[in-house]
């Protein structure tokens, strides 16, 4: 059973000022665009993104088993690789449990040799925070 007040307090703590509207937005129905794009493509959501100095860190949140077994839809993989190929994106594919605690992370980033994919099979929320801080230090050295 969900504790509504705890949910509202937690939402406010992480910057969600209108949880009712946020929940409605999480369930947007893109069905009216069916057929507008080739190959059955439909718009994809972005779980999280931050920009610093013109560089972007994209978060894709998935249940831990999907990340551990690399169950990433082909279309989403192509989309993320296209973002990486711009040279301005890094992607963290974060595996979490049912409580949304970080359990593992895949890191995709562009290097001079192409897309580098690394995997941290054991990662917690503090580790993810440290990875974010490392990313920030790197992009803060780059002039916008």
Report on the structure:
Strand 3 and strand 4 form a beta hairpin. The model has no long low-confidence stretch (mean pLDDT 90). The chain is α+β, with helices and mostly antiparallel strands and 144 residues long. The termini are far apart. The protein is globular. A 5-stranded mixed β-sheet has the order 1-2-3-4-5, sandwiched between helices. The chain folds into 2 domains: 43 residues, no CATH class; 100 residues, Trna Endonuclease, Chain: A, domain 1. The chain has 5 helices and 5 strands; from the N terminus they run H-H-E-E-H-H-E-E-E-H.
What are the SSEs and their pairings?
Blueprint: H1 4-13, H2 19-26, E1 48-52, E2 55-63, H3 64-68, H4 74-85, E3 89-96, E4 102-111, E5 114-120, H5 125-140
Parallel strand pairs: 2-3
Antiparallel strand pairs: 1-2, 3-4, 4-5
Q: Keywords for this structure?
A:
single chain, 144 residues, alpha+beta, Trna Endonuclease, Chain: A, domain 1, 2 domains, 5-stranded mixed beta sheet, 5 helices, 27% strand
How many distinct helices?
5
Strand/helix succession: HHEEHHEEEH
> Rg from C-alpha positions?
17 Å
Shape estimate: globular
Count of discrete domains: 2
CATH arch. level architecture of the largest domain: 3-Layer(aba) Sandwich
* Strand element count: 5
Overall pLDDT: 90
- What gap, in angstroms, lies between the N and C termini? 47 Å
Task: Give the percentage of residues in beta strands.
Answer: 25-35%
Supply the CATH class of the largest domain.
Answer: Alpha Beta
Question: Would you tell me which CATH topology of the largest domain applies?
Answer: Trna Endonuclease, Chain: A, domain 1
Largest sheet: 5 strands, mixed
Low-pLDDT windows of residues: none
Query: What is the structural class?
Result: alpha+beta
List the quaternary state of the chains: single chain
């Amino acid at each position: 059973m969900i504790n509504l007040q705890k949910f509202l307090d937690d939402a406010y703590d992480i910057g969600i000022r209108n949880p009712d509207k946020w929940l409605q937005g999480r369930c947007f129905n893109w069905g009216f665009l069916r057929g507008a794009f080739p190959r059955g493509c439909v718009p994809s959501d972005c779980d999280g993104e931050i920009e610093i100095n013109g560089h972007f860190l994209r978060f894709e949140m998935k249940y831990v088993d999907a990340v551990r077994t690399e169950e990433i839809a082909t279309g989403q993989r192509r989309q993320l690789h296209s973002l990486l190929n711009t040279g301005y994106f890094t992607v963290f594919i974060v595996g979490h449990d049912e409580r949304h605690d970080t359990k593992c992370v895949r890191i995709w980033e562009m290097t001079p040799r192409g897309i580098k994919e690394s995997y941290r099979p054991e990662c917690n929320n503090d580790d993810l925070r440290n990875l974010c801080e490392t990313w920030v230090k790197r992009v803060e050295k780059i002039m916008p």
